[in-house]
Specification:
alpha/beta; 29% strand; 35% helix; 230 residues; 7 strands
């Protein structure tokens, strides 16, 4: 999570930014993307929220180390954003919507805190576009186990393809959709991330796969921008 950057994970949003914007980063994690935004919006302000206190502490430490005075981090829920109406010009969410059970509720909150003509920018994966190989024994079963777990927890592994309709239904206008592939250069990191929540058999299969010199993992990411009406 700490390796994410605005360039690599929010490139679709960057052309829409200007230096004096107020931007909210929902699910900011350890703050790497938020801090990049703060450098870009040097006359504006960036606010990051995450439900995990440990992530907020990491984000605050990162901002302090970088000497950033125009970014703040607080614990908060995307379902109940702790900000007044029309507080931000941009609301951003990366790798959040695939995990939440009530995307409509989250979008209602994002729309509320946006100022008129402000934009929401969302990027989430769609598991229909996974490319993983080589197919070592147990790999597909392990990946399916993770997918089943995410679904059981209320997530949606195919949320990416649904984002445009969700934003339109929520009341956003001028919907812009795009998609990119993220090709991991570190299969061991992917394996470790997935294995943390799986049983020993599935975890072993993932680790065996990641040790293969030809291991690769590519994910389809869907990106959507919606505008709040005037």
């Amino acid at each position: 999570m700490a390796q994410r950057t605005a360039a690599s994970h929010a490139g679709f949003l960057l052309p829409h930014l200007h230096s004096n914007l107020r931007l909210l980063d929902c699910g900011c994690g350890p703050g790497s993307i938020s801090c990049d935004f703060a450098f870009l919006l040097n006359s504006g302000h960036v606010q990051g929220i995450d439900r995990e206190e440990s992530q907020i502490e990491l984000a605050r430490s990162r901002a302090s180390d970088l000497g950033l005075a125009n970014v703040a981090f607080d614990v908060g829920s995307i379902y109940e954003l702790p900000f007044p109406d029309s507080s931000f010009g941009v609301v951003f969410a990366h790798a959040i919507f695939e995990h939440i059970s009530e995307p409509e509720k989250a979008l209602t909150e994002m729309l509320r805190v946006l100022e008129p003509s402000g934009i929401a920018a969302i990027r989430s994966p769609d598991w229909g576009g996974f490319i993983v190989g080589p197919d070592v024994p147990g790999l597909q079963s392990a990946i399916q186990s993770y997918a089943d777990l995410q679904t059981a927890n209320g997530g949606d592994i195919y949320i990416g393809r649904k984002l445009s309709r969700l934003l339109r239904t929520a009341g956003f206008e001028k919907i812009e959709f795009s998609a990119t592939y993220d090709c991991s250069q570190s299969p061991s990191i992917i394996a470790e991330y997935l294995a943390l929540k799986l049983n020993d058999t599935d975890a072993a299969a993932l680790h065996n796969w990641s040790n293969d010199p030809d291991a690769f993992f590519a994910t389809a990411w869907c990106e959507v921008i919606g505008t709040k009406g005037k």
